[in-house]
Amino acid sequence: MIGVSHYLALSAILFSIGVAGVLTRRNALIIFMSIELMLNAVNLSFIAFSRHLGDVDGQVFVLFVMAVAAAEVAVGLAIIISIYRKRGTANIDKVNIMKW
Fold first, then answer.
1. What is the CATH number of the domain that holds 51?
2. Can you give the pTM of this predicted structure?
3. DSSP character for 88?
């Protein structure tokens, strides 16, 4: 039987991988994917607790988080593509937004 602790352990592992990706990588797309991984880890926790408690509030909250994440992906990718076209790199160390 898979319990809440299994889901929380998986969520913690996914969140840790996302944090490691944000802290160690310099490519904007990799950082962006790591942030999305962290959002999905939190969503997994919400769903696990929602199912455990027999309440749908967590599932509704996840639906809203997914909608906001979809909008974030659209805007974030547009910004990253715009920076890449202007500067020719997605490396965050080499991109200085204030100097166009």
1. 1.10.287.3510
2. 0.84
3. S
